[in-house]
Amino acid sequence: MPFNERSKHITQGVERSPNRAMYYAMGYEKADFDKPMIGIANGHSTITPCNSGLQPLADAAVAAIAAAGANPQTFGTPTISDGMSMGTEGMKYSLVSREVIADCIETCVHGQWMDGILVIGGCDKNMPGGMMAIARANVPGIFVYGGTIKPGRWKENDLSIVSAFEAVGAYRAGRMSEADFEGIERHACPSTGSCGGMYTANTMSASFEALGLSLLGSSTMANPEAEKAQSAAASARVLVEAVRHGIKPRDIITRQAIENAVALMMAIGGSTNGVLHYLAIAHAAEVEWTLDDFERVRRRVPVICDLKPSGRYMATDLHQVGGIPQVLRLLLNAGLIDGNCLTITGRTLGEELALVPDAPPVGQSVVRRLDDALYAEGHLAVLRGNLAPDGAVAKISGLKNPVMQGPARVFEDESSAMEAILSDQIKPGDILVLRYLGPRGGPGMPEMLAPTSALVGRGLGESVGLVTDGRFSGGTWGMVVGHVAPEAYDGGSIALVQEGDPITIDAHKQLLQLDVGGDELARRRQAWRQPPPRYSRGVLAKFARLARSASEGAVTD
What we know:
This protein is of the alpha/beta class and 557 residues long. It contains 21 helices and 14 strands. The chain starts with a helix and ends in an 11-residue tail after the last helix.
């Protein structure tokens, strides 16, 4: 519909309508009904530092929308803190919250006939949930990231939330003093903002710059800094112009734009969760995109940013040397992204990058030249084999040798695996198998940051493998393979693994193989029975009934 036609339909209608009376109760004047209504989906909460600093951004956006001649309408969206729920039953709600957020925003946008939507989010699932809603609603939209947390500091070392998780394993192994453990725990998170490395929140927000639905330079700003609120206001002004010009999300979220976003994720060493979430975003936008497309992009895009968890630097360090625009400029100059893709500003990505320098500042080591890349190919590898015929995702950055064969150590839940790690039952060469943790079996596909961090903290990050139908945190690194599909609950081969079975993980060959004969696997499959669902009512039960495979993004629609 043209400018303001959606909201005029509900506030005026064909004939005069009593609908206006309720708007007058909110302070509207008669002239306001000729202005567009812009929704602000505000993820502010005091649940988590990721979202507790969002209200100033929402306030800045409200003021900018009003000044631009539109009517702001604010509503709330929920969030689940991955870092706080990690290792608990609450972690099962994390991926579920992505769907809840998307449904919430879509419901408000269409239920109130909004002309545009500005989504503000911080914690991991705010980003994909918000972008899925923007794509579904398909009214002019923009995403405003709440911003990264500043690095913590202890004994001259930069810290993040992952430092605290890894410290648990190191302390329990006797490799760290109690004073250092408490110092890291106390100082890891010094401000508001989302996890400070290139973990899931920063991965997704950075990719939105490449996708064309966040302003360039906005994803690496620290939440407490004044520039973050200024960026929110600028985003609001851009959105009002997009409403006036009828620029819709599905004009922007094309196959080429998603390829740009995935190329950016590879270049910055982003989270494995980006794979799951872009499958879901593409589904919401009705764009054809599969696991094989990630592998195709991986093979042509090198990793050029030395960022945590496997690298040295934080998102704020990247911001100081040009941020995501600098990375995108390097990729554009090398022909690795498409500069002709439209952005929410009405200009192409290439036009937006025109004033960005061709090279990062001299003397820095956060962003490499392409001919001096950390890794010649991307780090998010799609593996297949009889253990994952529909695919699995491995994060292979930071590994000296992404090949391992070893005996399976099988666990049906995360807590028993953690106890085995912390009590020294896991030895170099073992491959942990954590199953019945997929979208339907978990349910909710919980992240395995606690066990992977415990392995790293105990010095086993390179020598012990972990295979799961669950997910990994963006802060995870090591010989880990997640998103195994089909999942155990649906009778995938991961359900057939027995203690001591030899397993091969070979990222070079893109192979995840259970080295057991076909006849034996057929016998085991014949004997397998699907377990009863863990939940029979409530949101987890609904998600378990509706969720698709991880290879399809674990979407529920």
